[in-house]
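Input.
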Amino acid sequence: MTDLNVECFGHDGGVNLLQHPGTLRGRIVTLEPLTAEHAEGLGAAAEDGEVWRLWYTQVPRPEGMAAEIERRLQLQREGSMIAFASRRNDTGALIGMTTFMHIDAKTPRVEIGSTWNAASAQGTGTNAESKLLLLQHAFDVWGCTAVEFRTDFNNHQSRAAIARLGANQDGVLRAHQNSNGYLRDTVVFSITQPEWAGVRLGLEHRLRKY
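Output.
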């Protein structure tokens, strides 16, 4: 595996390197650097609940998984995305994908997005721990000023899950993006550096029950 290096300029003009973190391992879930070899397992994860059929999401169909992985890896090579596959620790099964995206190297600031999970993994703590692992890296290693989340206005499940993380809603981008044949409104949330300590405690408290 080749690490992705992205120049990240701090407020003092110094240069840090945003590298692919490699594997981020939690108690419940492990985030692995996405590779083409994940296609079969992620195809099975998409079949779990047929999550690609939800009209307000952009989950790849199983037969399109290899192409979606390559799309993400191309964005990674271009320096605008850092991509992961998510794996449950109890079963070893792949359950979905997530990314750092829209990397703002000068601020620094990132979005956690392009995330989906198999239906059977929902409500198991895997999503909360995945977000904790990513937020820890963004704030504690990269020193980000804020981390952003975006979702379709009609995806009420996703909006509720983001709010439960402790993120604040910044606003709604009206008629923002062509998605699955319609012009969607995008809801924008964020967590700022001063809010991070409280968000971390909240997530750690939630994860104790799993």
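The mean pLDDT is 87.
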